């Protein structure tokens, strides 16, 4: 990977000296999306929002934002912009925002294009928030740039050619995350993590760690563990209805596909206890990593592991590319992925 240009030899932020660079014509194109509702898109297209012409206002704001980029981004050079265009297309349930900025100078104009998209999107959010406060500005990205020593750059080509630096999947590894504020503080013992770790070890999986974290820290801990690409991550705790219980939400942000049948089977296993129905635990796949939420009680963990005992080998084999998808494997009844 190339060295970062905005950091000096001592690791301090700096403005890059571009005095020796050649003056060339530079153009950058950026894009972003405001995700909203079909109702809002209809109002935008009919110019029926209470706050005047929202699309025109956002367009002007984007152009103004591009002109003020060096005031907003500390290490950006002030540039004499030759032109800035901002285009907003409302369709379906979103508005696509595209900005093109150009300059004749010694440094690129990418940040001006990106700032134009961002300011236009934020302005549009302000215009529609009375109707849809949950609107989301997303996928702000550089699409293309030209000029300078490196010439033309296009996002899709660069993504196709860049090397894969992702962490390799580890089929024999597992991890455990315990969400318990009191256990993390040391005011009560962790009675579930060691049980799960021992269970995993008995089934031939190497346990990386048992991370005991406060409820408020479960999202960061789970994200870190999943990023290390083990075959299986089991969480315990944080699945109830308490305001601090957030393990399912943290899991849903990471997984690509849910395994709703597995999550329901774990709930059903504890049906003898009425409060088991309050568990909001989920299960799913984050890439090739299986993530399963278990309740925080020893009994809930015991019931959940009992369910996993019947499907774990088959599930991990499927995720690893084996299971009943191989030609030689016997045909099993029931659902398959």
Structural class: alpha/beta
- Any idea what the shape is? elongated
**What ranges have pLDDT less than 50 throughout 5 or more consecutive residues?**
323-337
Beta-strand percent range: 25-35%
Q: Count of DSSP E strands?
A: 11
Distance from first to last alpha carbon: 37 Å
Strands of the widest sheet, in order across it, are 7-6-8-11-10-9
As a whole number of angstroms, the C-alpha radius of gyration is 26 Å
Largest sheet: 6 strands, mixed
Give the SSE layout.
Blueprint: E1 24-35, H1 38-45, H2 54-67, H3 69-72, E2 81-91, E3 94-105, H4 110-128, E4 136-146, E5 153-154, H5 155-161, E6 170-179, H6 181-185, H7 193-202, E7 206-213, H8 218-227, E8 230-236, H9 247-252, E9 257-258, H10 260-269, E10 283-286, E11 289-294, H11 298-319
Could you list some keywords that capture this structure?
alpha/beta; five-stranded antiparallel sheet; six-stranded mixed sheet; about 325 residues; about 35% helix; disordered C terminus
Q: Describe it for me?
A:
Strand 2 and strand 3 (94-105) form a beta hairpin. The chain is elongated, with a radius of gyration of 26 Å. The chain has helices at residues 38-45, 54-67, 69-72, 110-128, 155-161, 181-185, 193-202, 218-227, 247-252, 260-269, 298-319; strands at residues 24-35, 81-91, 94-105, 136-146, 153-154, 170-179, 206-213, 230-236, 257-258, 283-286, 289-294. It is built from eleven helices and eleven strands. A six-stranded mixed beta sheet has the order 7-6-8-11-10-9, with helices on both faces. With 337 residues, it is an alpha/beta fold.
């Amino acid at each position: 990977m190339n060295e970062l240009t905005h950091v000096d030899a001592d690791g301090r932020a700096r403005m890059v000296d571009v005095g020796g660079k050649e003056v060339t014509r530079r153009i950058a194109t950026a894009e972003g999306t405001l995700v909203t509702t079909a109702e809002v898109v209809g109002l935008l297209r009919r110019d029926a929002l209470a706050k005047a012409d929202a699309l025109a206002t956002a367009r002007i704001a984007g152009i103004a934002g591009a002109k003020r980029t060096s005031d907003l981004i500390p290490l950006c050079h002030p540039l004499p912009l030759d032109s800035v265009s901002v285009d907003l297309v409302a369709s379906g349930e979103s508005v696509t925002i595209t900005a093109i900025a150009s300059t004749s100078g010694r440094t690129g104009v990418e940040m001006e294009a990106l700032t134009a998209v961002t300011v236009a999107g934020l302005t549009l959010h302000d215009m529609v928030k009375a109707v849809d406060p949950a609107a989301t500005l997303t996928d702000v990205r550089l699409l293309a740039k030209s000029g300078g020593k490196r010439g033309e750059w296009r996002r899709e080509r660069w993504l196709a050619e860049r090397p894969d630096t992702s962490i390799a999947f580890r089929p024999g590894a597992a991890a455990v995350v315990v969400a318990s504020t009191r256990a993390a503080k040391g005011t009560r013992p962790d009675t579930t993590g060691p049980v799960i770790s021992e269970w995993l070890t008995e089934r031939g999986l190497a346990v990386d760690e048992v991370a005991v974290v406060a409820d408020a820290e479960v999202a960061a801990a789970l994200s870190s563990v999943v990023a290390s690409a083990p075959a299986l991550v089991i969480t315990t705790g944080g699945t109830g209805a308490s305001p601090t219980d957030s393990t399912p939400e943290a899991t849903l942000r990471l997984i690509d596909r849910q395994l709703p049948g597995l999550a329901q089977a774990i709930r059903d296993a504890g049906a003898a206890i009425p409060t088991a129905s309050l568990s909001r635990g989920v299960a799913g796949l984050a890439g090739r990593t299986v993530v399963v939420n278990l309740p925080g009680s020893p009994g809930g963990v015991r019931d959940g592991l009992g369910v996993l005992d019947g499907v774990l080998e088959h599930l991990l084999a499927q995720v690893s590319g084996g299971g009943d998808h191989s030609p030689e494997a016997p045909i099993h009844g029931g659902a398959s992925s």
